[in-house]
Amino acid sequence: MTENPQQEMDALIESLEELDRAYYIDGKPLVSDLEYDRLYHRLQQLEQVYPKLKRPYSPTCRIGSDLSEELPEVSHKIPVLSLDKAYSASDVSTWMHRTAAKAGGSLTFIVEEKIDGVSIVLYYEDGILMHAVTRGNGYIGNDVTGNVKTISSVPLRLREPVSLAVRGELYLTVKEFEQIASGQDIPYANPRNLAAGTIRRVTSSAVARIPLRMFAYEGYILGSGSTPASHWAMLSYLHALGFPVNSRTALFYPQDMPQKAQEVPPGWVVGTFGDLEDYIRRITAERQRREYEIDGLVVKVNELDVRDRLGFTGHHPRWAVAYKFEAPEAETDIKEITVQVGRTGRITPVARVKPVKIGGSVVSNVTLHNQDYIQMLEAAPGDTVAVSKRGDVIPAVERVIEKGAGSSPYWIMPERCPACSTELVKRGAHHFCPNDRCPDKISGSILYFIGRNQMDIDNFGPKTALLLISMGALTDPADIYRIDYDRMLSGQGGFGDKKIAALKRGVETSRKRPYKTVLASLGIPEVGEKAAEMLIEGGFTSIDALLEASRKGDVERLTSIKGIGEKLAEGITEALRDPVMLRRIRMLQEAGLSFSTVQEGIRDDKQIFSGETWCVTGSFINFKPRSQAEEEIKRRGGKVTSAVSGSTTRLLSGEHPGSKLEKAKALGIQVVSEEEFLELIK
């Protein structure tokens, strides 16, 4: 068929990559569709005859596969956090000046369109796309590599053999969405919904039929290469590597830095800080004329070294802010106002409104925040109100349009808790139920403790918890480790011997969760996984150290930790003085849960994996979820990576390991079985 098939296939790949870049990135097609198809079909033909010679970055990967694929979880190598929000141009301007003052010098800022799509992180090793991961919770996402490979604007191989992570936004144009939706009964209200549903499909061939696109907006060098000095330079570098970058981007600089106007790529908008508000007004007016939907603008510090100094909070980077366009509104009527009791006892009033469609979704419940907010609105049942989706996500009542026929000018918070009839108390702007035995507070704290992002107890779901609560057996998270499940659940509908045994195994396994997970599950306000990690890294390696600081009211010690603000520090100290919380901690300690890093074996003489990099793949008998195995490695000084590469030291392989096992063997990496791993960590 050909004397040197590999050489011909590589030449065809290079030609098709160049044609793809010209068409999808530069918007300048170089050949006719007929000629492109001829080259493409020739490559397909060769790959069918010589399947072992097919490259993993071949353009034919874009057709996808009909094989069903799981969406495994992958840990992110870079911070993938949310953005702080601003809702007016003046708020953005204030934030810019405040950030420049914190940095101690003159700064420039980049303004980008906030595409209303789906966030994706692309990981490249030596220039080859290895993983495409959804944002997930910011720390762990789903691997959707096979699906993303079908998107023509995503490069499968870069122009340089660089290792980097790229953040981007997947989207669908309005016109293409309307064409797909026309005459079809699809369950998606807008382009973003369809894009999000598409990228999580289990067959990549189905994804290939949806014309998704991507813009890259952040790059992080992971290897030994040098990082550009500025964000605009990084965007230029990404474009040179083959990524589509949105040309509708602007740079704003202080009045005393006019030379900055000469440094940006051609086509960008350039102006001083004083021009910013006019720019935001113009983009807001033009947004409806875009071929894609945007829901705001993102303003970022341009200087990358300054970003490193500013750092992050537990929620967002301090060097960026999202300006959100005025949220879409709709009119509806308040049918009634009820209250919800949270796990901390906080009472939140909720308006039950006549269902109304806003921004592509139907809203029937709207938060009213607190009594002060209601009085400001003068809102009551029967009123006609304007409802918006703040940040295009959270439904809120904006104002009363017309008062109803009720006698009261506004709704008044009940004096007693709807769950336990205890008299409510007001702290600041909010009302609270002070009763430690309030059933809603109890169930809330228990459901939080067993949640997927907390203790994640196998076979112990909300239904089981609520059943045990209703039986009076479960009154605090610590009771989970004291209940006689055979006695309580035998004979209950749906609970046979096997199900009870599986539940007991899940409870026993959860006793081994690391201190970080236990601390994040206690229910301390605003202390989740990230805050727990910051506390431990800041020196609070045991619950005793935290309790001592709380007993002394040492807020200053807590706020000295990067990312812990005064409000969070005060909340921690208050929570750890609460008798109910202290009793919970004591009972969980008696149950054998980990409340210190030393308890987990983090000592110098046990850092047996120091200097090693592990990859974990497959499913395990003793580590469910498999992140438990990763924690064991980290506790003993090792690093964990989500992909096998030349720097990987060992591969921990369970059942159904997939392609990672084959790659590890090809690279000569030591493969460790679950049994061998258990021996190592004894």
Structural class: alpha+beta
| Tally of helical segments | 24
CATH class of the largest domain: Alpha Beta
CATH topology call of the largest domain: D-amino Acid Aminotransferase, Chain A, domain 1
* The CATH H-level homologous superfamily of the largest domain: DNA ligase/mRNA capping enzyme
Radius of gyration (CA) equals: 28 Å
How does the SSE layout of this entry go?
Layout: H1 5-25, H2 33-49, E1 73-75, E2 84-86, H3 89-103, E3 109-115, E4 118-125, E5 128-134, E6 140-142, H4 145-148, E7 164-171, H5 174-181, H6 191-199, H7 204-208, E8 213-221, H8 231-241, E9 249-253, E10 269-272, H9 276-286, E11 294-301, H10 304-310, E12 320-324, E13 329-341, E14 346-358, E15 361-367, H11 371-377, E16 384-390, E17 394-402, E18 425-427, E19 430-432, H12 439-449, H13 462-470, H14 485-489, H15 497-510, H16 515-521, H17 529-537, H18 543-552, H19 555-559, H20 566-575, H21 579-590, E20 613-617, H22 627-635, E21 639-641, E22 650-653, H23 659-666, E23 670-673, H24 674-680
Helix pairs in contact: 1-2, 16-17
